[in-house]
Amino acid sequence: MRARKSHPALIHGTIRFFESPEPILAFERTEDSERLLCAFNLGGKAVDWHPQIAASWTATDLPGCTGTLEDGRIHLPPYGQCILSRK
């Protein structure tokens, strides 16, 4: 809840969904100059996602984010999440 309060895009931002393989749900939230990419693994096995857009994003230090971004690959543990910010 604290993360949402400190990031207006998570509360009021517009939403744009990305195509991603199952079981990943990915979307971007935008409010003013803040842009956040939110990726969620809805499955019980770890998954890697290599979106072409990953190079233009950077990892955040938001609490509860269990996923990682490395070399253009988003790694999501089972039922994990990753929230990235635009560079």
TrEMBL record:
Domain Maltogenic amylase-like C-terminal, chain residue ranges per copy: 20-82
Protein name: Maltogenic amylase-like C-terminal domain-containing protein
Lineage, broadest ranks: Bacteria, Pseudomonadati, Pseudomonadota, Alphaproteobacteria, Iodidimonadales
Alphabetical list of InterPro entries matching this protein: Glyco_hydro_b (IPR013780), Malt_amylase-like_C (IPR032091)
Pfam families per the UniProt record, alphabetical: Malt_amylase_C
SUPFAM superfamilies the UniProt entry points to: Glycosyl hydrolase domain
